Amino acid sequence: MSLADLLQLFIVIPIIGFVLSIFIPEKRETALSNLAFITTISHLIFFLVFVVLWNQNGSTPLNIKEISIFKTPHYDFFIDFYFDGVSAVFLFVGSFLTSLITVYSRYYLHREDGYKRFFNTILFFFIGYNIITISGNLETMFIGWEVLGISSFLLIAFYRDRYLPVKNALKVFSIYRIGDIGFILAMWASHHLWHENITFMELNNDMIVNEHLASHSYIGFFIAFTLLIAAAAKSAQFPFTSWLPRAMEGPTPSSAIFYGSVSVHLGAFLLMRTFPFWEHQITARVMIGLVGVTTSIISFLIARVQSSIKAQVAYTSAGQIGLIFIELAFGLNTLALYHFAGNAFFRTYQLLVSPSVVSYKIKEQFFNYVPRVETFEDTWPKKLEYTFYLLSLKEWNLDKFMDWLIWKPLKNTGKKLDFINIYSMYTVMLPLFIVGLVFIFILGKNEHTNQFFPVIFSIIGAMMVFKSFSERNSPLLAWVMIIGSHFWIILAISFNDKISINEVYFYLTGIVIAGLFGFFIIKSMKSLEPELNLNQFWGHSFKYPKMATAFLICCLGLMGFPISTTFIGIDLVFSHIESSQLFLAFATSLIFVVGGIAIIRIYARMFLGPHTDKNHSTPIKAS
Fold this sequence. Notes:
By secondary structure, the protein is mainly α. Helices cover 72% and strands 3% of the residues. The chain starts with a helix and ends in a 16-residue tail after the last helix.
């Protein structure tokens, strides 16, 4: 067996551990923690053996095309694995720190409700992390990218009977989905630039990259810009920095592994992996450097005024990643790798000892009081000092800026679409849909219809998603709107010549199956809880845990998570959008992203948060 064949074991080992952990009962804490530790330490030992063999074979990058999942005459979605020095560093740090966290969590979460759920999610995260670090193309990386997004949501909302963890989990997941817009559009533009699913191994060929960029410089800049959006959202860089301290609502071990050390650096990993593509684009390097500089300065100032240790560590970590972005902009990739490893180990240590530090500091305040020492800020003019202090205390209004830029426009747009309901779907939208089908199958497509109808139908799909996002009364209506938006996507794309009926079936299979099961679960919940709406968090996972789990799986299937054909269908749909159809590409990606946020919001409102039944104790709102 060659080294390339062994590469897939980096994925197989955590998958086996995750599957086995599902069947271990909740009460068997020792078995759960031992399995998690054995899985991660076995992964670490295998990595060390693999690296030794890899070095003996000359340390040349390894690439293996594992399997073609879906192939047509013009499209090939294949899993590709790639291993080089960057993968080695990220794999080592991830394996070592995750094994450390499993040991720490064994005692930290002892007798905690959700003990099994925590270790299940950690192992699930470990699968996604390994997929990302050895991915050989953007499509494979996006699988791990999505796994990390949902496991992040589940870990932040670990204390699901509390208000703030659930609310902040939704906020963080929403920012992740915004980053997904960048990732999806980067994959779409790459298809048109290369006319194939380009691998990272091929990106290292300067002749191929320069030849394509010379004649398509605008597409090259667009890809670099969208990659930066994806990286900045994942690594909490400006203007997305404020989500990082909100993510600390989860247990300390998950905060350490996710937001202090490993997961938060994956935006930088994305830039490292695509470095050969944008290294000759001066504008892209300047943008990356400016994002890093801005984040470092703002994070440093905010961290100075935080009263919470977790918030201090969060902003400090974001500032250090900003420095890593600057190093990458200057082409100092090796320095960035060392910086990543040092920052990851140090932030993990800080977060794991933070409970002890808090206890120690409280005691010191009483018995060894030390007056405040003057700092360099005291040398500034007082007006300037107070201005920066208040700005930092308000976290530079980053939350308000995101709210003004994204969330308020989405909510206001959705509120203006109250005319969209079940009645209007039957009387207006269904006839329009039939008109579109008539032009495709009977009257035939022409130049005018191909320009007009895709825009109109994608706008209708976007309107349905916006309505679902702002819907407060009926979870059933919000769910149906999301299902309907996918049919409008397919109708809009169908006016392009290449798409086949088999590809349409492949895409819609996952939507229909997940949509129908989710529909019946919501109907069942409405019969059990007649007052159910989306105005508050109902916390029904307390009474209906199996139904909550089943509905979460339906949500993942509907939003295109890598458990259904829809995930591949998303990339397949974008492969049929022409490079001149920028509006259609943006509208389609907006439907996927906002729809995903709306779906998780439905799940969170129905099943997470303090339970409305007051017969048992519930945490206060701001616990």
